[in-house]
Amino acid sequence: MALFDLPLDELRGYRSASTEPEDFDDFWAKTLQESREHDLDARFEPVETHLTTVRTYDVTFAGFGGHPVKGWLVLPAGATEPLPTVVEFIGYGGGRNLPHTHLLWASAGYAHFVMDTRGQGSAGAWGGGGDTPDPVGSAPAFPGFMTRGIDAPENYYYRRVYTDAVRAVEAARSHPLTDASRTAVLGGSQGGGISIAVGGLVPDLVAVAPDVPFLCDFPRSTTITDRDPYREIGNYLKTHRGRADQIRRTLAYFDGVHFAARGRAAALFSAALEDATCPPSTVFAAFNAWTGDDKHIEVYEFNDHEGGGPFQEAAKLRWLSSHL
């Protein structure tokens, strides 16, 4: 796809029109407090992967509402002291996959925690699947996850996912071979959007690295592109006429722009200028809102949603080595 969004010089100054709810901080403080009333109960069971360079653990911890959430913890095989830790969140429709697909960060000497996204991996849209159901039902929704419970912020699917993600950081930090003082979060697309949310909700992270992040600048993203997953919202509103204001109110509590305004950690973003799934203006909206002074964005001029791919992985390896 050719360039379709704002020119790069305008992207660098672009600001979202998303309006932050007055009770945004109270909403999230209450949400996390309620989930922390459940024991984290993080359990790490060794897994035989037949790999000699890493040790892998099957993780279960209590996420939103105390619901069991799965994950992997992958460690360098010879680790005996606490390691800097990378917590990763997965793209839309995928799950934690199989252990041998997560070797990069442990190979670089980090503890690597991968969170399974509730409901998505078990649905099996791509990859090797997942093992975390979402036991919460919702009002009628368009197929997919973007409109589940969208009638109210308290019911919205991503309230559960963002809470799971904060608890995933807590679970990762609970293992004796992770260094809680050196924790980074990262992910691509949906995983990038989740990492931005966690960056705004967990104040003591060292680094946040969202690639071509999803879930940002909803007023623009839901109207500038007709690609899924954002288009799920438009398709929902085609049949639920007259609810647009109600839906905009719900989405405002989950907009990466507002979490970015609370982000203090060092940040490395990436954007692709031909990305019609997560349009570059919506990525720059979150990047420009990020309040930490140590921030940088890699721009891939002729790429779609694949973004920087292995080039961005190399950039993150270089960047994290100086922060963790």
UniProtKB/TrEMBL annotation:
GO molecular function (one): carboxylic ester hydrolase activity
Residue span(s) of domain Acetyl xylan esterase: 1-322
Signal sequence extent: none
Residue positions of the active site: 189, 275, 305
Biological process, per Gene Ontology: polysaccharide metabolic process
InterPro entries: AB_hydrolase_fold, AXE1_dom, CE7
Pfam families listed in its UniProt record: AXE1
Residues bound to substrate: 92
Protein name (Swiss-Prot/TrEMBL): Acetylxylan esterase
